[in-house]
Amino acid sequence: MSRLTKITSLNLNGLRSACTKGVADWVAQTAPDCICMQEIRVQASDVVGRFEEMAGLQGYFHFAEKKGYAGTAIYTRHAPSDVVVGWGDAEFDAEGRYLELRFDRPGRKLSIISSYFPSGSSGEERQAAKFRFLAGFFPYLTALKKEREFILCGDLNIAHKEADLKNWKGNQKNSGFLPEERAWMTRLLDAGAEGAGLVDVYRHLQPDTTDACYTWWSNRGQAYAKNVGWRLDYHLATPAIAQLARREEIYKTIKFSDHAPITVDYEFEI
Prior knowledge:
This protein has 270 residues and is an alpha+beta fold. The protein is built from eight helices and 15 strands.
């Protein structure tokens, strides 16, 4: 049996803010092999001397050009064979939405990706940008899947099915649960000729959960206290890697941001 590799995804709502809330201690305690972070909201100048490492893990970053905005990071216990910053789309690479670490060795090509999908909740302009992102990202992931195995961890800002959010009936016209967004996810997970054939790893392990699956709660009202949540944070994997997923955990009581960390243990070695 191979050793288990632990991979965590977490939207931080700011790396500096999360560090003041003890994220480094939590990473040391849970000891992931890789932690993929989204919405780090820092620049290169903020990282120097402070955030290059976390709990013995080396950090890699994709910074947004706009200060205090978006950005992705991966902290890893294992040195990557290559680092890919951005996916080749000028509009969204400027927002720091894609970071890929490659762990290639003879006979295997494997990537771990941290991605932060745009939110469309602020209005029509950002929803249009979200649709542009989805339109361009689909063929990119399809092409990548033909070349290598990968796990994409990220805040997708989409709840795929009715089981993935509490108030699905009232959110069918809201960003994050729009029919077009859900259809995109369905196609991404479709193994047929028209789909990308990726696997929603959480649903592979937990096909039927509802209240237990949420990873994000609005700050309005008593959403967190009442568990009125959404599942927005995912592990998406190529089929061969998804079959190696052994267990998952959503850390609902851990509050570094309005998102919960989600960890999956995979039976392979980086």
